Structures are given as structure tokens and as C-alpha cells.
Amino acid sequence: MAQQTVYLDNAAATRLDERVLEAMTPYYLDVYAVATSQFGYSLGLQAKEALETARATIAQRLNASPDEFVFTSGDTESSNMAIKGVALALGEKKGRHIVTTAIEDFPVLYSVRSLERLGFTVTNVALDEYGRVDLDALRAAIRPDTILVSIQAANQEIGTLQDLPAIAAITRERGVLLHTDASHSFPRVPLDVQRVPVDLVTVTAHLIHGPRGVGGLYIRDKTPFVKWMDGGFQENNRRGGVENIPGAVGFARAVELVTAEETQRLQRYRDRLTAQLLQIADSRVNGHPTERLPQNANVSFRFVEGESVLLHLDLRGFAVSTGSACFSRSLEGSHVILGIGGDHERAHGSVRFTFGRYNRDEDVPAVATAMAEVVTKLRAISPLGKE
Amino acid sequence: MSTLPYSELVMKHFKDPHNVGRIEDADAKAIEGSPACGDMVAVYLKVDEAEQRITDIKFESYGCASNIATGSIITDLAKGKTLDEAREISWQQASDALGGLPPIKVHCSVLAVDALKSAIQNYEERHGLVKEQVPTTLEEVHRRLKHVVNPAVGLDIIRTKVVADVKLEDGVVQIDLDLPSDHQFANAIRDEIIEKIEPLWDIRQVNVTFRGD
Predict the structure, then answer these.
(1) SS3 state at B185
(2) Is A315's CB within 8 Å of B35's CB?
(3) Quick one: angle between helices B138-145 and B186-197, nearest 10?
(4) What is the spatial distance between Cα B84 and Cα B82, in angstroms, rounded to a whole number?
(5) Angle between helical axes of B8-15 and B65-78 (0-180°, round to 10)
(6) What is the pLDDT of residue B148?
(7) Is B20 an 8 Å CB contact of chain A?
(8) Which residues, in sequence order, are CB contacts of A277 under 8 Å at separation 6+?
(9) Cα B184 versus chain centre, distance
(10) Angle, CA of A279, A280 and A283, to the nearest 5°
(11) pLDDT on residue B3
(12) How far apart are CA B128 and CA A301, in angstroms?
């Protein structure tokens, strides 16, 4: 296996940046103490300082106060914490209705579904063909007993960005809390919580060349929220458990290393690849043509099945993802493509390419050429697409 | 070193499938599956009428690796066999010939086996070899349910006791499953049941209910 993989699944996980690892290492080997209170020993104080510096760095990227940022074990925990934390705080006092979309990533989707089983009601707000929230439908969905709106900043699969300022203006006007899962957009797509009145924001390190197992949740000051990860008084008594200081330091370093220049480079890859893939007959873009994640291209090819595409690309040294039912753990087609009104066939032939720091200019024509070969090969054996 | 879930033989047949394509003047053909629910396989036969023997066979696939590999192996196995012999080729034989298939992939691969059986049936229908259409019995429904696989374990839903109750009345089949509706494979199993039962000529409706909630 001398062949080098061209990795185009950066929406699933990313390669750790050595500079991140370098920043983290001292907090495993030297400053390994827990973050102690101000009356603790000096090693603990150093750990505490590192944790708070990391917190400030990440909060600054959201234009938030450091006090409003809680470290978690990743985006799954962050979204669970946000949704269930608000439900615990307001379920009895205000109501048991939640507004979300059908295309959220699994942590939001299944947190909401768990609450439904406990008696909460849920409205999935209507989306357009690109997966963008219909703002009138959102206004109509909010009821007096609505306690939370949870709408992602960007879609994990088709890359569509939501109009967060418009959504937040509506929730703010109606006095309802807004949570957004920004795992796939932070910090490549800027979000300023002083200008956009979101109340809770999920972020994660593992998609920006940071470590696995660390993420965070922005919780706007005074947001009704009940701590449910019980334990010690860490994270300002919002999440129990010994702090992952190397993780926090790594996350902060990863955030620092994401630059606008780099993001523009990935966006050029995205646009070039999409243009080349659309040269293949019977192909179409999934998601919004322009309002989409800079690193995400997603195209469906008719008459071919995604898992076969994925395996043939793997044999040629490319790693991608698909929304095909054959590839999913539940044997169901992508809930995102079905959620924007696509059919099973479109999900079956959908292929997601996500770029990261370690992709190079030459990866784009290479994967486009491989993709054209694979589609031709599979269409030759397909019973469909021949008159 | 390979960490792929598929055997080397599956990968070989996936990369370079045998007997691929269409027979324009086929004596019989069948398509199983549909683009609406996932994979599709088409099988084409040339049959020696005197001997009732398959002289040529080809297939086309709109599906995943296990679907393509099973189409390839099943056409290898059927070529040169009589219709009666070919009809007996089971999914298990195809799987064994491929060095095993992952349980979760049974659904995708059993389609090729079904397509071969359907193509043989299609030949018999065209050549007046089929008896009168008989009304569907509960036994026939049970027999078909034995071909629906529980992807969690790779065994059929009758043997794994997922099917709690089956009723048949006036062309309506009611199937109760001992599964919660949010089970990982609930929708996949329901769709496959409908796929297997609905084509029966006198069945108007198939209802699947989840009892495990």
C-alpha cells in the first residue's frame, strides 16, 4: 500500500496538524495537573491558565466573552447539552415545543427525538430545494410554548449555509432561544454572536485539524440552562468532569491556524471540482450553488450507486463519502437529501467531497478524472440510463 | 493487507464482474428491485428449448459492491445449468462461492438471486410452462418472509422471531413485528417486506406494524 490516499472526507474527520500536537504535548507530559482553584499549587495554576487562555482564544473567534464558552467532548455532547439543557430549564416553566429541521446532523436529530419520547412536540420547519429554511414557515412554526429553535449553521452533507442573521432576528423578536450547530462552519464561516443573536452554538475541534474528543458550547450569558453532566464544579458549574486541558489547548491552536487565505484556497478547490464534475452527464449539485460551506462539494450522479463509487475511488486512492442507503449504518438513504425533497435515487448516487488543509491543487483534477472513469465504468453495467 | 469488509473474491468480482451486459434477443429477462428503494438487478437468459438449459446469461446492476459481485457469481453458477438446477441456486451458495458476504449486505445481494429466479419464471410464463395462478396463502406469505433478512444478524426475520403475527384477509396482509419503530433497521426491514409481498398478484395492500414501542 505505497499509494498515498487523497483524503476528501474532511467533514468526517481531519488530519491533526503537527503544530496542534506540539501545543498539546506539554499538557500531557509536563503541566499534567488538573486546573485547580486560585488557592492550588503552581502546576495546577499553570494548567488553569492554559485552559483559560484556550477558552479566550476560541470565544474571541465568536466575539463572545470567555465566560460564555464551555468545553465539551465534541459536537455530539455540545448539541445534546444545549438542547436537553434548555429543555430541562424551560420544559416545566414555559413549554414543551421545539422547532428544528429534518436535515440536522445526528446529535441534534436524535436529541430532539429523545425529547419527543418524553412528551415534547417538535416541528420540522419547511426547507427549500437547497435545504435553506423558509423564514415564513419558521415564523409560523413558533408557538407560545416554543422553548427552543435549533437550526444548523451549515449542513454536514450538502454544505448549505443557513441565513442565520435572518433566523436569529426572528427568534429574538419572538423571544425564543436559538441553538445552532456550527460544527462544520466554525471558524471558516465567521459567526459574530454580538451581531447575530444566537443563544447557543455547537463547535468542534476534530473538523479543523484539531484533536478528537474536544468541542465546545457557546452559551449566551443568562440563557436558561440546566447542567446535566453532573460531577464537580468545573466549567463554571455547567459541566462536571476533569477538564481536557491538552484538548482545549489543541482546539484553540487549531482555531488560530484556520486563516481566511486557507479557506479561500479550499473554496477554489470546491468550485473547480464542482465545475469539472458537472461535465459528467446526468449529474447535479446537491445543496445551495453559492451559499454553501467553502470546503464542501456534493454531486449526485444518476444510474450509479454511491458505495460502488466509493469503493472504486478507494481502489484508485481517493477517500470520499456518499449518502447511499447501502453505505449507511441503518441501510437508509441520506436523511438530508430526502429531507430537501430528493428521492432515493438521488441519495443513492450522491457523493460528498470535503477539502482540508492537506489537499493540494493537483488533487482536484485527479479526483475529477477518477470520478469520470468510475461513473463511466458503473454506468456501463447499470440497467438504467439506456433508452 | 486489507481492512475492507469484503472478501478478496467479492472485490475481484466487483472490480471485474463476469457476464455483464444485456442480451438483446433474450429468451427471458427479469428486473428485481427499483430505483425508488435502492439497488436493482436485471438478468437476461438464452435458453436451449429442447434441453431447458441456460446457454447464455448476462446481468446488469445498479447497486453496491455485494450486489455487483453476487450478480457476477450467480451468472457464473447458472450458466450451462438446466432451468430446474438454476432455480435451486440459493443466496447461501452464492455467498459461499464468494467467500462470504457481510450480514448487513444480504439485502443487496439477495436481489441478484431473486432476479435469476424471476428470469426463469419469466421464461416459463412465456413458454406456457406455468400452472394457473393460485390464490396466495398464509404459507406463501411466510415462505416469502423467510427471504427477508434482519440486517442486524444476517438471518431471516422468521427465524430470528422478529415477525410476531401475520394475517391475510381479502388481499390485505397485516404483519406485526416485534421491533420498536425507531430500531436501527426498522425502515429497511419494513421496505423489504413490502417489496417481497406486494408483487403477489392478488395482494392489494401490505401493512407493517411495529409492536416494540
Answers:
(1) coil
(2) no
(3) 130
(4) 5
(5) 90
(6) 82
(7) yes
(8) A283, A297, A299, A368, A371
(9) 22
(10) 105
(11) 62
(12) 41
For the annotated catalytic residues of B, the residue numbers are: 37, 108
pLDDT band at A177 (very low <50, low <70, confident <90, very high): very high
Query: Cell 468545573, residue?
Result: A234
Among the listed residues A258, A153, A269, A261, the one whose alpha carbon sits nearest the alpha carbon of residue A207: A258
pLDDT surpassing 70 at residue B2: no
Distances (CA, A) of B72 to A77, A141, A324, B10, B190: 45, 52, 22, 9, 28
Residue-wise pLDDT tens digits, A308-319 = 999 999 999 999
What region, left, alpha or beta, does residue A273 occupy, with left being phi > 0 and alpha being psi -120 to 50 degrees? alpha
Mean pLDDT calculated for residue range B57-75: 95
| pLDDT for residue A1 | 43
A49 and B CB contact within 8 Å: no
Contacts of A312 in chain B (CB under 8 A): 15
Q: Lowest-pLDDT range, B39-53, B62-76, B94-108?
A: B94-108
Task: State phi, psi for A309 to the nearest 5 degrees.
Answer: -60, -50
Task: Assign B37 a pLDDT band (cuts: 50, 70, 90).
Answer: low
Q: Which of A326, A358, A373, A376 is flagged as catalytic?
A: A326
Residue A244 has pLDDT above 90, yes or no: yes
Chain A residues whose beta carbon lies within 8 Å of the beta carbon of residue B185: 330-331
Q: Distance between CA A323 and CA A381 in Å, rounded? A: 21
Distance set, CA B46 to CA B108, B134, B189 (Å): 25, 28, 34
Q: Quick one: cell of B95?
A: 455467498
**Count of other CB atoms within 10 angstroms of residue A95:** 17
d(CA A202, CA A212) in angstroms, rounded, equals 15
pLDDT for A2: 46
d(CA A20, CA A250): 5
pTM: 0.89
Interface check A387 vs B, CB under 8 A: no
Q: Which residues neighbour A151 within 8 Å (Cβ) at sequence distance 6 or greater?
A: A99, A100, A101, A104, A125, A133, A138, A162, A164, A167, A178, A179, A180
ipTM of the complex: 0.85
Q: Kindly list the strands in the beta sheet with A215-219, ordered across the sheet, starting from the edge strand earlier in the chain.
A: A69-72, A215-219, A200-204, A177-181, A146-150, A97-100, A121-124
3-class secondary-structure state, position A370: helix
Min mean pLDDT across A1-5, A28-32, A266-270, B74-78 is at A1-5
- Left (φ > 0), alpha (ψ -120 to 50) or beta: where does B169 sit? beta
**pLDDT score for B131:** 63
* A217 Cα to chain B: minimum distance (Å): 28
**A185-233 confidence digits (pLDDT tens):** 999 999 999 999 999 999 999 999 999 999 999 999 999 999 999 998 8
Alpha-carbon torsion angle B49, B55, B61, B67, nearest 10 = 110
Per-chain mean pLDDT for chain B: 88
**Partner-chain contact A344 B14, CB within 8 Å:** no
Count of alpha carbons within 13 Å of A167, Cβ hemisphere only?
27
- Region label for A235, one of left (φ > 0), alpha (ψ between -120 and 50) or beta (otherwise): left
Determine, for residues A325 and B38 on separate chains, whether the beta-carbon distance falls below 8 Å: yes
Alpha carbon dihedral B100, B103, B105, B107, in 10-degree steps, equals: 110
